[in-house]
Amino acid sequence: MVSNLLSFWIAHRAELSGLLGQHVLLVVVATVVAAAIGVPLGIFAARRPRLASPLMAIASIVQTVPSLAMFGFLLPVPLVGGVGARAALVVLILYGVLPIVRTTIAGLRGIDGSIREAGVAMGMTPRELLQQVELPLALPSIVAGVRVAAVVGVGSATIAAAIGAGGLGEYIYRGLSMVDTTVILAGAIPAAALALVVDGALLWLERQLSARRRSRRRWPAIAAAVGFSAVALVSSSIAARRAGGAIVVGSKNFTEQIILGELLAQTIEQEAGLPVDRRLNLGGTIICDRALLTGDIDVYVEYTGTALTAVFHQPISTDPRAVFDTVRELYGRTGRTLLPPLGFNNTFAILVRGADARSRGLRTIDDAARESSHWRAGFGYEFVGRPDGYPGLTSTYGFRFPDPPRVMDLTLSYRALASGQVDMIAGDATAGLIKGLDLVQLEDNRRYFPPYDAAAVARAETLLRYPRLRTALERLSGGISAADMRAMNYAVDVEHRDVTEIARDFVGRKR
Amino acid sequence: MLGLVGRSGAGKTTLLKLVNRLLLPAAGSVLVEGRDTREWEPIALRRRVGYVLQDVGLFPHMTIADNVAVVPRLAGWPADRTASRVAELLDLVGLPPRQFATRWPDELSGGQRQRVGVARALAVDPPVLLMDEPFGALDPLTRAELHAEFRRIQERLRKTVMIVSHDMGEAFALADRVGVIDEGRLVACDRPHALARSDEPLVRQLLDALPVVPRA
Question: Do A121 and B43 touch (CB under 8 A)?
Answer without folding.
Answer: no
